[in-house]
Amino acid sequence: MKFVFYFFLSLLPISTLAEPSTCTGTTANGSLKNGVQLPASGTNYTGYSDVARLAGRTYVHSEVRDIIVAAYARLEKEEPQKIYKYAETGFREGGPFKPHKTHRNGLSVDFMTPVKNQKGESVHLPTHPLNRFGYDIEFDSQGQYEDLTIDYDALAAHIVALHKEAKAKGRDIWRVIFDPSLQPKLFATRHGPYLQQHVTFLKTQSWVRHDEHYHVDFAIPCR
Q: By the number of CB atoms within 10 A of the CB, which of 34, 98, 134, 200 ranks highest?
């Protein structure tokens, strides 16, 4: 009987077996218990670096993981031609996460900005050691970098999906940080009215420019 019990236990999803995460403090001064790692990739998304993943830089609160994965599943149906890439999140136990000032309690996630190539196809922003895994990329005022252009429609759809999945789970998004000079084009998409009504964007320039990535802080109760 014991063998049968453990056999069926082994078939359960990891999220079912794992202890739920708990966070303490704030995104700028906090910690995380039982952090979980984001999946390396999915049908329409991937992580920004296998090296960073092995270094333990893609851990989040378990509820944040569930929201993110559910949002990608929603986008797979709603935006089947779009692909996405997530970036830095935090350590398994939270705490200081250089060079970031936040990302300390499992509720902060960076996502690489969705882009289109010259054919209008959804492609991944290149992330490798030579461009500091994408963080050294700079878009101009027109949202252009070399032969890539910011896909504002895909970006807006992703934030909407994150918000809807967070609300469906009784949670919310605290704020989104994206370069203020590029926000008007984001709000000009078909998702613009929804974003302006339901999601809070930082309106002032952050200590680093958020153009090649957008930062999302989730609103989940912490101790």
A: 134
